[in-house]
Specification:
The protein is mainly α and about 140 residues long. It contains 6 helices and no strands. The radius of gyration is 17 Å and the shape is globular.
């Protein structure tokens, strides 16, 4: 029963992404060619909402869904790994036309060709798990 609330939030989030065309390959293509503000508006709104939400969580000491105090980890030093990770993420997003969350949404909408991308993402995650201790962090 506990996971039902997560499932419902996920379904709601999926509907929002489909209706806002955030999972549309054409919208993503436009974004990477700098032809449309649509995706930048969605991403900018999400970043702004995230900043405001984190500020409120810290300020009001809001508890998490299980009733415990939300613990935010301290900021890590160094930006290089974020730049490299962002470039790799962006390249994968541009090549696949989807980032990890919308892959499942696209599968749910009947875009079955995303199974190839989803399988590659799962394989990449598995390979990272195997090599994690040998990689610089």
């Amino acid at each position: 029963m506990k996971f039902l609330k997560y499932l419902l939030v996920g379904i709601f989030f999926g509907i929002i992404l489909v209706k806002s065309e955030a999972v549309s390959w054409y919208r993503i293509y436009e974004m990477f060619k700098f032809q449309s503000f649509h995706m930048y508006g969605i991403i900018g709104s999400a970043v702004s909402l995230g900043i405001i939400s984190l500020w409120l969580i810290k300020k009001l000491k809001i508890k998490n869904i299980d009733g415990y105090n939300a613990i935010l980890p301290p900021k890590e030093k160094g930006i290089t790994r974020y730049i490299i990770g962002g470039i790799l993420f962006g390249l994968g997003w541009a090549l696949a036309g989807a980032c990890p969350g919308p892959m499942y949404i696209l599968l749910g909408t009947g875009a079955y060709s995303i199974i190839i991308v989803l399988a590659a993402a799962i394989l990449g995650t598995f390979i990272y798990g195997v090599l994690k201790n040998k990689l610089p962090h």
